[in-house]
């Protein structure tokens, strides 16, 4: 029976030792979870599982049992009930220290804009990863929503700009979820002040009729946020592709951004397309076509688990190797923070090792590309680490 050849020792050692920059990630859980809650956290869906099915019959759950169980004192592939019981027997911060510490990440760039009340804050996260840099990615929509009810429509844009200046003082980048709120089929031009005031008036009038937390989805206001984000000069991350049922995947193809990317190019600001699956080949084209466009396949690597090698290989088809970044997009369970790193290292070893064995690549080139994707590209885009 044939077996997969062992990876080149030099390449395997290089991938094991590279200290990653996770350029897009969220914080970890503030409270323990039971078995049903843990299952809910291993899917992007916000719906209950269909009768007769289980969220644990999935690539990501199998990867948890394979790669995370040994760190909690269990054998690989331990039953999920045993795994969650072992998890619950430890303090939550101890689980996090074990799993986060094993990821080999030197720098965590954390999006703080989504359900922060369920997660530990940046200081607490930093205490779980001693020696690593923990930095903030500011979500544009969250900034606008935070000042929505503080005044009227005429000065909403000014209130946003003042809040943006304050919140980005120590931040490493920005993020927008326009893909969720509207999709990428939008007028690419910068909105005129009159357009913004009219949209602000409509939105604030809706808020006056509803006591729910503000949620901006007006395309004019979302465009305003994008353009002001570009004006800061900070790297701007855009969710693209796969996510939860709140988005319309048909409208999340990054190719729809091409006209906007052309307008943005003279600004000198970098745009980073996050996750991208199943549009990662389209993102690779955009990264080749535009010098200011970068991308990752972070979320897809976790959720495709043992099949993630194919996604990584496809991401490396067309894109320049200096334009692909590592991310986990982990949110909540620290298992996802670890799996992003474990599956990326394993997948890159398989893909690059295959090309080395075929004589298409040298070992030295494979090692260099692994370092670029895992660390150096992010260091170049986001600059030196903050204190």
TrEMBL record:
Domain (Amidohydrolase-related) ranges: 230-383
Family matches, as Gene3D superfamilies: Metal-dependent hydrolases (3.20.20.140)
SUPFAM superfamilies, per database record: Metallo-dependent hydrolases
InterPro entries in the cross-refs: Amidohydro-rel (IPR006680), Metal_Hydrolase (IPR032466)
Alphabetized Pfam families for the sequence: Amidohydro_2
Source superkingdom: Bacteria
The protein's name: Amidohydrolase family protein
Species assigned in the record: Nocardioides ginsengisoli
């Amino acid at each position: 029976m044939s077996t997969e050849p062992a990876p080149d020792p030099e390449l395997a050692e290089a991938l094991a030792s590279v200290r990653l920059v996770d350029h897009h990630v969220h914080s970890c859980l503030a409270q323990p979870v039971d078995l049903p809650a843990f299952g809910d956290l291993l899917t992007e869906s916000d719906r209950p599982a269909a009768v007769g099915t289980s969220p644990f019959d999935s690539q990501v759950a199998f990867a948890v049992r394979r790669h995370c169980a040994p760190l909690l004192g269990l054998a690989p592939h331990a039953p999920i009930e045993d795994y969650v019981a072992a998890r619950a027997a430890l303090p939550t911060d101890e689980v996090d220290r074990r799993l986060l510490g094993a990821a080999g990440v030197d720098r965590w760039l954390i999006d703080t804009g989504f359900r922060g009340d369920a997660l530990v804050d940046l200081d607490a996260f930093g205490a779980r990863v001693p020696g690593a840099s923990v930095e903030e990615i500011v979500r544009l929509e969250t900034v606008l929503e935070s000042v929505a009810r503080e005044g009227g429509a005429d000065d909403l844009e000014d209130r946003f700009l003042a809040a943006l200046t304050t919140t980005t003082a120590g931040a490493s980048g920005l993020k927008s979820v326009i893909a969720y709120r509207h999709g990428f089929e939008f007028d690419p031009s910068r909105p005129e002040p009159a357009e913004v005031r009219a949209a602000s008036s409509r939105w604030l009038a809706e808020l006056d009729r509803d006591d729910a937390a503000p949620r901006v989805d007006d395309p004019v206001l979302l465009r305003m946020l994008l353009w002001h984000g570009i004006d800061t000069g900070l790297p701007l991350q855009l969710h693209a592709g796969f996510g939860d049922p709140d988005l319309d995947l048909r409208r999340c193809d990054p190719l729809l951004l091409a006209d906007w990317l052309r307008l943005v190019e003279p600004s000198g600001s970098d745009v980073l397309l996050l996750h991208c699956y199943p549009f990662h080949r389209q993102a690779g084209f955009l990264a080749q076509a535009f010098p200011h466009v970068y991308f990752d396949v972070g979320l897809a690597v976790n959720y495709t688990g043992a099949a993630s090698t194919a996604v990584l290989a496809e991401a490396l088809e067309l894109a320049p190797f200096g334009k692909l970044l590592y991310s986990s997009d982990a949110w909540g369970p620290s298992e996802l923070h670890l799996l992003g790193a474990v599956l990326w290292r394993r997948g890159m070893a398989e893909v690059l090792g295959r090309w080395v064995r075929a004589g298409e690549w040298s070992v030295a080139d494979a090692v260099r590309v692994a370092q670029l994707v895992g660390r150096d590209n992010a260091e170049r885009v986001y600059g030196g680490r903050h204190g």
